[in-house]
């Protein structure tokens, strides 16, 4: 541990004297407003935090947008691969190097407002219905842990793009589980008015602290540099400055 701290200290004092680090591959999904895949490149609140972290650490990198399940499994498997915005659950914690928190948000279960037959007071009540989840998302893992079963209460999809269209267009899908901030953007993108949705249940046991994390095979010196860089952004006020610029969307 002392050697790592010393290395970090040298890095801060002499940022240009770094070893020949490999290019980091950073993987993510399209998840407005945190990360957005646009014709001009990857943008969004979390993307700006990650880009600023990389710039301060002077580490070469590329960002690739893909389905969450593919991104998650690449970051589990491959060396020199990092991922954002990933939630840090107890089951996930041993499998990644956690660089630092990017944002906090709340998760809830929603239905269509017109579905007056759906009444949920507890997570157990939700087991009477079919709920759409994104494969390998923390909400997917959480519901499996709570006793929900794929093919019974869970309808698993590859990405969140079509989640609201599935909720509206398929009579066999009753519910979705989604981050409250993200839902507003999903409603706008899918053409399903936010006013047509009803929050059925908040899930305080599933807070979503979004993180930047790297695979266990990523060089630990690089991970330490990134963690130091992100913390420096927070200490300097740059992190809050970026957050303030996105405050109306967060």
Describe this structure in words.
With 250 residues, the chain is α/β, with parallel strands linked by helices. 34% of the residues lie in helices and 26% in strands. It contains eight helices and twelve strands. The strands form three sheets. The protein has a five-stranded mixed beta sheet with strand order 4-1-5-12-6, with helices on both faces. Strands 9-8-10-7-11 form a five-stranded mixed beta sheet, with helices on both faces. A hairpin with a 2-residue loop joins strand 2 (36-38) and strand 3. The model is unreliable at 1-19 (pLDDT under 50).
How is the topology of this model organized?
Elements: H1 2-13, E1 24-28, E2 36-38, E3 41-43, H2 45-57, E4 61-65, H3 68-77, E5 81-87, E6 96-105, E7 107-112, E8 131-134, H4 138-145, E9 154-157, H5 163-169, E10 175-179, H6 180-190, E11 197-202, E12 208-215, H7 220-236, H8 238-245
Parallel strand pairs: 1-4, 1-5, 8-9, 8-10
Antiparallel strand pairs: 2-3, 5-12, 6-12, 7-10, 7-11
Helix pairs in contact: 1-7, 2-7
Could you list some keywords that capture this structure?
single chain, 250 residues, alpha/beta, D-Maltodextrin-Binding Protein, domain 2, 8 helices, 12 strands, globular
